[in-house]
From TrEMBL:
<dbReference type="Pfam" id="PF09209">
    <property type="entry name" value="CecR_C"/>
</dbReference>
<feature type="compositionally biased region" description="Polar residues">
    <location>
        <begin position="1"/>
        <end position="15"/>
    </location>
</feature>
<dbReference type="Pfam" id="PF00440">
    <property type="entry name" value="TetR_N"/>
</dbReference>
<dbReference type="GO" id="GO:0000976">
    <property type="term" value="F:transcription cis-regulatory region binding"/>
</dbReference>
<feature type="DNA-binding region" description="H-T-H motif">
    <location>
        <begin position="47"/>
        <end position="66"/>
    </location>
</feature>
<keyword id="KW-0804">Transcription</keyword>
<feature type="region of interest" description="Disordered">
    <location>
        <begin position="227"/>
        <end position="246"/>
    </location>
</feature>
<keyword id="KW-0805">Transcription regulation</keyword>
<dbReference type="InterPro" id="IPR050109">
    <property type="entry name" value="HTH-type_TetR-like_transc_reg"/>
</dbReference>
<dbReference type="InterPro" id="IPR036271">
    <property type="entry name" value="Tet_transcr_reg_TetR-rel_C_sf"/>
</dbReference>
<dbReference type="InterPro" id="IPR001647">
    <property type="entry name" value="HTH_TetR"/>
</dbReference>
<dbReference type="InterPro" id="IPR015292">
    <property type="entry name" value="Tscrpt_reg_YbiH_C"/>
</dbReference>
<dbReference type="InterPro" id="IPR023772">
    <property type="entry name" value="DNA-bd_HTH_TetR-type_CS"/>
</dbReference>
<feature type="region of interest" description="Disordered">
    <location>
        <begin position="1"/>
        <end position="25"/>
    </location>
</feature>
<keyword id="KW-0238">DNA-binding</keyword>
<protein>
    <submittedName>
        <fullName>TetR/AcrR family transcriptional regulator</fullName>
    </submittedName>
</protein>
<feature type="domain" description="HTH tetR-type">
    <location>
        <begin position="24"/>
        <end position="84"/>
    </location>
</feature>
């Protein structure tokens, strides 16, 4: 009996399953390509064909991995912010202990996420500016599912720092101000780059900026509670340990 030819062996052998990571790699390429295109063109004007071409994927890939263009857009934004907040341990950090140190922890983690790790998603600030100008349903979901829980964590810390007799409206106002003070350094970077001064790029520079924001926030909090001066940022506060990567 003649042995089977190589061609017959290939034909009869079970088909080799693709590596699991191949699908994930394709999915990741599509998300990053989509982020670039959505940032450049906006959601409505963006072409699925252009996204696939830029990702080096076939046209059916978006339907296969995401279902619709809308679902891809949602995943592009949500995936980036989940990576920034969850991997940065902002939600899981231990904020017990003195409220002023808890506030420093939160601000430092938040600013490292916004200014350092967001470099993995260079299209994100432009996408968010587009959402601020022309909000989509994704923006509402993002605020409700991601930003509001973070804000609630911060509000709890702010209330502790202001004291048990703090006015609830003041707590909410101050929480918003601290959040916006942190966010502006990410969203307003193109403006800040045209102003005199150093734009924080390295981890030490970002953490130094976080300490300045923290001191500024403390002053505002205690001004509203009737104290003449905010507590000084002592060496023990400056040396507080915050793990920004886990």
């Amino acid at each position: 009996m003649k042995p089977k030819s190589t061609q017959q062996q290939k034909k009869n052998s079970p088909r080799t399953a693709p590596r699991r990571e191949d699908g994930q790699e394709t999915r990741t390429r599509i998300i990053h390509a989509a982020g670039e295109v959505f940032a450049q063109e906006g959601f409505r004007a963006s072409s699925v064909r252009v996204i696939c071409q830029r990702a080096g994927a076939n046209l059916g890939s978006i339907r296969y991995y995401f279902g619709t263009k809308e679902a891809l857009y949602r995943e592009t934004i949500f995936g980036a912010y989940h990576d920034l907040t969850e991997r940065g341990s902002i939600k899981d950090e231990d904020y017990s202990g003195p409220a002023s140190l808890a506030l420093l922890k939160f601000i430092r983690l938040f600013m490292v996420a916004l200014l350092e790790r967001r470099r993995n998603f260079p299209y994100l600030p432009t996408l968010m500016m587009r959402e601020l100008a022309q909000p989509t349903s994704v923006f509402n979901d993002l605020v409700r599912e991601l930003f509001l829980p973070l804000r609630q964590q911060l509000a709890t810390i702010v209330r502790r720092e202001m004291g048990p007799g703090a006015n609830s409206a003041r707590v909410e106002e101050n929480t918003n101000r601290i959040l916006l003070l942190c966010i502006q350094f990410a969203l307003c970077r193109p403006i800040l780059e045209r102003f005199p001064g150093v734009i924080p790029k390295t981890r030490p520079q970002i953490e130094a900026l976080a300490e300045s924001v923290h001191a500024f926030a403390l002053h505002g909090l205690h001004e509203h509670t009737g104290h003449a001066h905010a507590p000084a940022l002592t060496p023990s506060r400056r040396s507080v340990s915050v793990s920004c990567d886990r």
